[in-house]
Amino acid sequence: MPAALNIAISKTWQEKFTLEFNYERTFWSQYENLDFEYGGTDIGGLTPYFDTPVLKDWKDTNTFRIGATIKMDNKITAMLGFAIDETPVPEKTIGFELPDSDAKIFSMGFRYQQTENLSWGAAFLTDSKEPRSLTPGVADNDVLKNGGGFSEGGAFLTTIGVAYEY
């Protein structure tokens, strides 16, 4: 895993509204190769396809996040977030195993404080990847060397949680 530098700041008003900002620099440039070691296992005719290190040469990236937490009078806390996340994958070494692109991330959720010790909540996040076009002749990948692109990528994440504090 790469090292990451995080700088964050938050401000709370009247113990009800908190605004948070986070800047993250992820040092992906340490990921130079994808190289599997098989510990002496003979994989036969597949050796040239799986045993040769694959150049990745990723670049360092920036991520910017902003979030808000709002405590309501009815034991509910609402949370909202937005992030801009740069891809570390250069066009030259992009492949189908990680066809990444820049993303915009939206999140929202709530927590209900049922008792002094018990709370529960739910959250939803959508990670919307930007379409990415590839210039012919740049990508090392044999399938992508004539150009191409990736679109409609992303993810939807949901979570439900319960917390009991004692």
Q: pLDDT average, as an integer?
A: 91
The structure class reads mainly beta
- Using only CA atoms, what is the Rg? 21 Å
Q: Strand order, biggest sheet? A: 1-2-5-6-7-8-11
Count the DSSP helices. 1
Count of spatially separate domains: 1
Any idea of the CATH class? Mainly Beta
| Percentage beta strand | over 45%
Order of helices and strands: EEEHEEEEEEEE
The gross shape turns out to be elongated
Distance between the termini: 34 Å
- Relative helix content: under 10%
Low-confidence stretches: none
Number of strands: 11
CATH topology: Porin
Structure description:
The chain has 166 residues and is mainly β. The protein has a single domain (4-164), classed as Porin (Beta Barrel). Helix content is 2%, strand content 51%. The chain has one helix and eleven strands. The protein has one helix at 47-50, and strands at residues 4-13, 17-26, 33-34, 54-55, 61-71, 76-85, 103-113, 118-129, 132-134, 148-150, 154-164. The chain has a seven-stranded antiparallel beta sheet with strand order 1-2-5-6-7-8-11, with no helix packed on it. Strands 3-4 form a two-stranded antiparallel sheet. Strand 5 and strand 6 (76-85) form a beta hairpin. It is elongated and about 65 Å long. It starts with a strand and ends with a strand. The model has no long low-confidence stretch (mean pLDDT 91).
